[in-house]
Amino acid sequence: MNKTEERVKTPVICFDNVSKSYGDKQVLGQFHLSVRKGEFLTVIGPSGCGKTTMLKMINGLTEPDSGSVWVRGVDVAHTDKIALRRDIGYVIQYVGLFPHMTVRQNIAYVPTLLNKKNKQRTARAVEHLVSCMELDAGLLERYPSELSGGQQQRVGIARALAAGADILLLDEPLGAVDGVTRRKLQEELRRLHKELGITAVFITHDFHEALTLGTRVVVMNEGTIVQDGAPKEIVEKPGSAFVSSLVEQMKAGYKFG
Ligand SMILES: Nc1ncnc2c1ncn2[C@@H]1O[C@H](COP(=O)(O)OP(=O)(O)OP(=O)(O)O)[C@@H](O)[C@H]1O
């Protein structure tokens, strides 16, 4: 394989026959998934079907009972988890910003750890991300509690990108923001994905969001993938009654959760 073929064909994230149970309940069963570099994978499915469990296996927050998860060609089970997490952006619904740190300090947190000596470089990176996320520079010295939900979410995304991560995991990042802000943030995410060429795995309860943001959509139910394809394919050729009903519900304006 030449370099380009290798980049396209080697998955950045790979689940190989992964299973996970909590007590008697199987949450993931013989789960297989490969995500290639630069894909924007959206994941949708009913509450409790295993989406978050799957996502947290990518950054080692949850471990499989059997099977393995590979990130950039390395088995997560045999990786330094702290280094892995620094290297993968992670955005969750209620942001998880450090409340005692300003916006600037929150965004600069990982770059400061990685880049202690070069404060100017970190400052430039923070300012660049703030402008990318269309955050007013005047907010940099505020604390998270002094921001709106949408602003906090922008800071959360900027913080996740600040370490220069090429993989971004997003667990319903826009679930708690209002409709107008949500659409703006969807636009920002789409633009950032294009500009930075990052690989994103994005969980949502909103099928319309999954279809508009994803370059590829995975539909899950009860711990397995029931359909995996391009957004158009999912809508035009739903592979089961379950996916058909999702498409119908979306047309009728219904959202999971
Ligand atoms: N640490 C845990 N201990 C016990 N059960 C858990 C744990 N984490 C998740 N579960 C259970 O595993 C199942 C899958 O949870 P998970 O969070 O992966 O689902 P999800 O598809 O992300 O759901 P939602 O859309 O509601 O966030 C659920 O039944 C949940 O209660």
Automatic annotation (TrEMBL):
InterPro entries: AAA+_ATPase, ABC_SmlMolc_Importer, ABC_transporter-like_ATP-bd, ABC_transporter-like_CS, P-loop_NTPase. GO terms for molecular function: ATP binding. The keyword GTP-binding does not apply. SMART domains: AAA. SUPFAM superfamilies: P-loop containing nucleoside triphosphate hydrolases (SSF52540). Pfam families: ABC_tran (PF00005). Keywords: ATP-binding, Nucleotide-binding, Transport. Residues 13-247 form the ABC transporter domain. This is ABC transporter ATP-binding protein. It comes from Diplocloster modestus.
